[in-house]
Amino acid sequence: METGVLEWFRIGLGSLDEIRKGFVDACDKLRDRGLLALRDYRGRFGGVCDFVVLRLVCENKVMGEDVLGGLPESLRWQDQVSKKVYFNNCVEWSSPVLASNFVSNRSLENFAPELVGELRRLSFLVSPVGFLKSKIKRVDDVFEYGEVIRGLSEGDRFELSNYLFSLGG
Predict the structure, then answer these.
(1) Cα separation of 65 and 100, whole Å?
(2) CA-CA distances (angstroms) from residue 136 to 8, 29, 59, 86, 105?
(3) How many whole angstroms separate alpha carbon 139 and alpha carbon 143?
(4) pLDDT band of 45, cuts 50, 70, 90
(5) What is the DSSP string of 2-36?
C-alpha cells in the first residue's frame, strides 16, 4: 500500500457483533501493517524497538450513509464522540464501538421505522424535556417543537428554558 493513500474497508450490515468486528478487524489490519513497516524500517536502518503499539489511533469513518450525506458540506464539528472536520460528508467516530453503534442504529431505522418511531414516542413519554433536549441543538429548532413545548408542565418549560439559554444563540 502506498504511503498517504486512503484505504476504505467495506463493512456490511449484519448483527451488532458482526458490524463491530468489521471495524475492529480494519483497525487490526492497519496496526499490523504499521508494525510491519516499522520492522522493515528497522531492518533497513537499524535501531531498537519493542514492536509494541503504545496508542492506536484509527479513524473510524462512515460515508455513503443518507443521514450523513444530507449534512451541509460546510458544517464542521469535533467532540469526544465524533468529528466532521473536512468539506465533505465524512464523519469520523472516536472508536470502532461508537462507529458500529451508529451503523447498527441506522440499519434499525431503515429496516424497522415503526419500531424506531415507537421508541421515540416512548422516550418522549418517559422524559419530555430529555427528549426535547436531544432534538433541540439550536434555538432555531424550538419552532419545530412549539406545539409540544406549549403542552409541557410549567416546571418542564422552566427546565427547557434553562437549557435553551445555555445554548447561547
Answers:
(1) 13
(2) 33, 39, 28, 24, 20
(3) 8
(4) very high
(5) -TT-----------HHHHHHHHHHHHHHHHHHHHH
* Complete edge-to-edge strand list for the sheet that includes strand 60-62: 60-62, 91-93, 82-84, 77-78
Q: Which of 65, 83, 67 is nearest to 75 (CA)?
A: 83
Is 105 strand, coil or helix?
Answer: helix
Q: How high is the pLDDT of residue 140?
A: 74
Residue 145: DSSP 8-state: G
Q: How confident is the model at residue 40 (pLDDT cuts 50, 70, 90)?
A: very high
Collapse the DSSP code of 82 into the 3-class scheme (helix H, G, I; strand E, B; otherwise coil) and give the result: strand
Look over the chain and give the mean of its residue pLDDT values, rounded to a whole number. 79
Higher pLDDT, 110 or 96: 96
What local confidence, expressed as pLDDT, does residue 63 receive? Answer: 66
